């Protein structure tokens, strides 16, 4: 059995996440998200999808990135628009 690093539960179905050279042990995805998901620097929500990154800063969506002064970030490109 292994102990979850978020909640301390000693669980026989715990799993490991290998990220950035470290190994983390969790008993469920909820605990993994709580420990590892970046936090939106505008609204404070956990970024559990792709999110938006600007430099070293993380946001849950383009709106939040723009609210913090990032220009030109959009959630999607209109059909027929080339980049």
Q: Can you give me a brief rundown of this structure?
A:
It comes from Nonomuraea composti. With 83 residues, the protein is α+β, with helices and mostly antiparallel strands.
Summarize this structure as a short list of keywords or feature phrases:
single chain; 83 residues; alpha+beta; 2 domains; two-stranded antiparallel sheet; 2 helices; elongated
Structural features, described:
There is one protein chain. The chain is an alpha+beta fold. It has 2 domains: 1-36, no CATH class; 38-83, no CATH class. Helices cover 17% and strands 24% of the residues. It has 2 helices and 6 strands. The chain has a two-stranded antiparallel ribbon. Strands 3-4 form a two-stranded antiparallel sheet. Strand 5 and strand 6 form a beta hairpin. It is elongated. The model has no long low-confidence stretch (mean pLDDT 92).
CA radius of gyration: 17 Å
What distance separates the N and C termini? 50 Å
Helix content: 10-25%
- Number of β-strand runs: 6
- In spatial order, strands of the major sheet run 1-2
Q: Tell me the overall shape.
A: elongated
Biggest β-sheet strands, sense, barrel: 2 strands, antiparallel
Taken as a percent bin, the fraction of beta residues is: 15-25%
- SSE ordering: EEEEHEEH
